[in-house]
Amino acid sequence: MSDLAARLRALPAFPDVMPELDLATLPMDPTELFLTWLEEAIASGTRQPHAMTFQTLLPGGAPVGRTLILKDLDETGFQISTRNTSAKAHQLAEDPRAAMTFFWRESGRQVQVTGVVTALGEDVSQRDWLARPTSDGTPNPDWQVYAVQPERIEFMQARADRNHVYVSYRREDGSWHHAQGR
């Protein structure tokens, strides 16, 4: 083991006290659990609780990720925004599959969302653009809001003993089904 490996292994991973994931009270719709966890992260003062790693696919299928923020969550899905000329917009045009990974270190929680991305209407995109803190009130035709319509959502609640608790939801025939584990 190298010195770096030993130092990395010694770093603290999770807080001493973390919430439990009660498997007996899981909601049927995983977005309910996601919103509960997000609201708890917001209430606890977590810095940028809406930040996530957003992964798209390069030509050839290699994944590429970057940090984005969640703009909204509604019946259209988990929303993000970008310029139509961005690399991620081009990647989504080639292959609309994407993944989001939220990680709230302070509670030892992670949520992974995978699904197909669709571009939302111009009205949604311009409302988002005009609501930005730096907006001068001029519309931006290059701005696009996308929504990830989830097909799979996995929740992980860390445990100090590293026997983390996982719950995976999968959409099948328009309904959500969940199971413990990955």
UniProtKB/TrEMBL annotation:
Highest taxon in the source lineage: Bacteria
| Keyword line | Flavoprotein, FMN, Oxidoreductase
Task: Fetch the PANTHER family from UniProt.
Answer: PYRIDOXINE-5'-PHOSPHATE OXIDASE (PTHR10851:SF0), PYRIDOXINE-5-PHOSPHATE OXIDASE (PTHR10851)
Residues spanning the membrane = none
Q: Name it.
A: Pyridoxal 5'-phosphate synthase
Required co-factor(s) are: FMN
Locate the Pyridoxamine 5'-phosphate oxidase N-terminal domain: which residues?
38-156
Query: Which InterPro entries does the entry mention?
Result: Pyridox_Oxase, Pyridox_Oxase_N, Split_barrel_FMN-bd
Q: Name one Pfam family in it.
A: PNPOx_N
